[in-house]
Amino acid sequence: MAPRFELWCAKVPLRRPYTIAYETCSEVEMAFVRFTHGKYAGYGCASPLPEVTGESFADCRAALEAAQLDPMAAQPLLARAPAARAALDIARHDLDARLAGKPLVGLYGRAHTRLLTSITIGIKDTLAEVLDEADEYIGRGFPLLKIKIGSDLEQDIERLAKLREHCGAGVRLCVDANEGCTSAELPALCAAAQRLEIEFIEQPLPRAQSRTQHSTSAVPFALDESLLSPADARQLAAEKACDIFNIKLMKCGGITAALDIARIAAPHDIGLMWGCSDESVISIAAALHAAYSCPATRVLDLDGHLDLARDPARGGFTIRDGIMEPDGRPGLGIDWEGL
């Protein structure tokens, strides 16, 4: 008997708007799916990334509505909607693990005892806002801060220097430019990052230029917007374009594709960071279980659920002093509370 498929869509406000190199966000549209089989249910979530994948929320919703009616006929729409595919893939994984009576990571094998997540500071109007937010996150026990840059490089470098001075050497820093840097600016950013002990630089250049950037820096590079699929992973790995892949389920289409990317990275000694957008704990937990199953995982960037003013699901994991762990319950370990 095929699982029953249900779909809900909602606009979810953020606790506070945030800015990255190409947009400011105050709310996020998400789609939630549930597969039920007898007394068991598996949940998935879609939070499209239109600036990265070209998938609008309307595209995502249309693909999921089509999949409700006829999964085979929906394939052309799903092929162009990675977040919709991710929601379906996550729900199937959750249901399979619940039927097996195991946490999802238990189906793949756990490779790590503990993993640290970063928490992100968006682009701010003033230095004071950056320092205040850093103090808030450090006070909440997060030792790794990811700083969004990309509006004004000279100002960005000045703020990073002030942030390093303010936080001291005990706080770890990384930088995400979201394609907001130019080739001419890149050497100055790399030199500043090395001087300020920045752990890595994420996607400084537009994706079309990202394959030429790696040799210019002693600081590790991570690629995000350049990595949308296993096919991208194969090409980037062959070209030695970066040190770290930032895997996001919403970009690649779910856990299955994410684990394919991880397998491609392994023989090339490419580390894995597991990232997110603003998402429910459902898809955050899915990425977390996948991350714990991959030996090449180096760091998490799974803080998107913290931005939501409300979430129809809860549970899935714990976060203490920045360490994020699955909670050990079957499936993703989440509880559905409803919209």
The succession of helices and strands, N to C, reads EEEHHHHHEEHEHEHEEHEHHEHEEEEE
Low-confidence stretches: none
Strand arrangement in the largest pleated sheet: 5-6-7-8-9-10-11-12
C-alpha geometry: globular
Number of strands: 16
The end-to-end span amounts to 28 Å
Biggest beta sheet attributes: 8 strands, parallel
Task: Please provide a written account of the structure.
The chain has 339 residues and is α/β, with parallel strands linked by helices. Helices cover 36% and strands 26% of the residues. β9, α9 and β10 (244-247) form a beta-alpha-beta unit. The mean pLDDT is 94.
Which terms would index this structure?
alpha/beta; 26% strand; three-stranded antiparallel β-sheet; 12 helices; 339 residues
Task: Provide a concise account of the structure shown.
With 339 residues, this protein is an alpha/beta fold. The chain contains twelve helices and 16 strands. Helix content is 36%, strand content 26%.
Describe the secondary-structure layout:
Layout lengths: L3 E17 L2 E15 L2 E7 L3 H4 L3 H13 L5 H5 L2 H19 L3 H5 L6 E2 L2 E3 L5 H13 L4 E5 L4 H15 L4 E5 L9 H10 L2 E5 L18 E3 L6 H9 L5 E4 L1 H4 L2 H11 L5 E4 L6 H13 L3 E4 L12 E3 L1 E4 L2 E4 L7 E3 L3
Parallel strand pairs: 5-6, 6-7, 7-8, 8-9, 9-10, 10-11, 11-12
Antiparallel strand pairs: 1-2, 2-3, 4-15, 13-16, 14-15
